[in-house]
Amino acid sequence: MPSSIEPKILCRKLLILFILATTSIFYGQNKTIQNSGDVLLFAMPATALTGSLIAGDYEGSWQFAKGFALNQAVTIGLKYATDKKRPYNNGDRAFPSGHTSTTFQSAAFIQKRYGWSYGIPAYILAGYTGYSRIEAQKHDGWDVLAGAVVGIGSAYIFTTPYQREHMQLSFANDADSYSLGFVYKF
């Protein structure tokens, strides 16, 4: 990713900042896990989109936006189509989990666009969000699993791997000859 800030360092700093913010803000409260899942609902897509914008990867930003829109449309459509009750009578429209689909769409975008070194921490946070929804008794395992599938699928439809250099020029020579090579990656 072209940027003055090393992407791995930025990713680590954002992860540390999230952990510090959620543990200090919600420490001692009864709903710590649920609240941190709620924070991730906004933090994950904001990080994915802002990170691509900071890196100057506008094609990636557009891919993220398309995947996000599809994810929201499918998730909300399924919620209204199935109208599944939430566990413990905590409301309606449980299937699929919107928190989980949103965070997994963000994680899948990060992983597919920028690689597994960024994707693994993102998937861990997305998985934690799914866990937080079960722990808060808002969803069961099927709701969370469906949210993860919808989110990952939405991201994978539009996201392509990031290529730093689309063109590569090479030159080689020996005692008798010269060689010039040109490669363009689509």
TrEMBL record:
**Phosphatidic acid phosphatase type 2/haloperoxidase domain boundaries:** 65-159
User: Which Pfam families does UniProt cross-reference here?
Assistant: PAP2
Report the InterPro entries cross-referenced here.
PAP2/HPO, PAP2/HPO_sf
Query: What domain of life does the native source organism fall in?
Result: Bacteria
Any idea what this protein is called?
Membrane-associated phospholipid phosphatase
Naturally occurring in which organism (per UniProt): Maribacter arcticus
